[in-house]
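Working notes for the structural subgroup meeting. M.R. asked for a predicted model of this chain before we commit to crystallization trials. I am recording the input and output together here so anyone reviewing the notebook later can reproduce the run.

Input as submitted:
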Amino acid sequence: MSIFIYLDYFSLHVKILDTIFAVLGFYSLLTCNKKIFTWVGFFIGIFWFYWISFSFRYYELIYLIPLVIVGFGLIYSLFFYLIGLISKTPEIRTVFIFLLMFFEPFGFNWFKPELILINSYFSTNIYLFGLFLISINLLVRLKQYWKIFPVIFLILLSFFNNPQKFEKPSLDIAIANLNLDQNKKWKQKYKQEIINGNFFIINEAIKKGKELVILPESAFPMYLNLEENIIEKLKELSLKITIFTGGLSVRDDKVFNSSFLFQNGDYQIANKVVLVPFGEKIPLPKWAVSLINDWFFNGADDYESAKEPFDFNISGYSFRNAICYEATTNQIYKNNPKYMIAISNNAWFQPSIEPTLQKLLLKLHAKKYNTIIYHSANSGISGIITP
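Returned structure, recorded in token form:
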């Protein structure tokens, strides 16, 4: 149930392996006893999400890392335990596994069972995934030679995983892939070095004749809308190339995680819509939010969020804005955008499988909404993700 992430992490792109492990994984889920099912949840929680604990290094809470890792194991083991308790038959368990597609504890939705099929011969489409689970259920239920029928059906399902048609915009785009240590990112003494590095990337893109350059989330780690000198330089350069970059912005004493588009000597700001649970926003009652922020985050307030997704018009093309986590959520794909620019900062979680898991989730959503995603990441995986 987890090996597909690690195969991709080590660049072992062998479809037949992903397919075999997917079938074995789901078959085992439907046949194992309740005790084993609970342990499956425990190790899924760890193998998929151990990396979340790494961000605690930057809040001087290193001692919490093992507790957070075990905590994720316990959360998913409890959930799987409840499913095992309720599921008296493989059919009921099949239904619950299907419903896991919609399970979002505290708004965090990176456990998607259909994602396990992303690099296999099977489709992640909601209906085809349902038929896949039914086929596995029949493989469990039917006896002896009757098992040949679900096997044949599984083979037939593999023919429905065809690439979708798409058309890239006729823009020459440079996608930056930075590798800036999170320890340096917000320290004042590295500020000018970081700014110079960003301008170097932009000028190199201009030299290569690029039309658009995309820098990662918080590439400018500051309240960029208050930095008049930098804004003016970026506006001047935008007469030669369109610049898309991440940075913080502040308005009416509220802080936003933002994208900045500099184009034709002017600029626009779009703010993040879907905030990271427990990272940018505490999804708990107000009294608990204040308590957690005081105890763990030195009294820092949550970020503010925009109400609706925002589309930038770049040279006549409409690009949906997405910042890191929200690019892996359904909300940001409202009205099925044709193109998306996603920017991320994965330095919080390195070294780990987090950038790989994010890339697979972006691929899942690109297929689901037929969206081409241009992804620029710091300490992550940058590139173009097609449906």
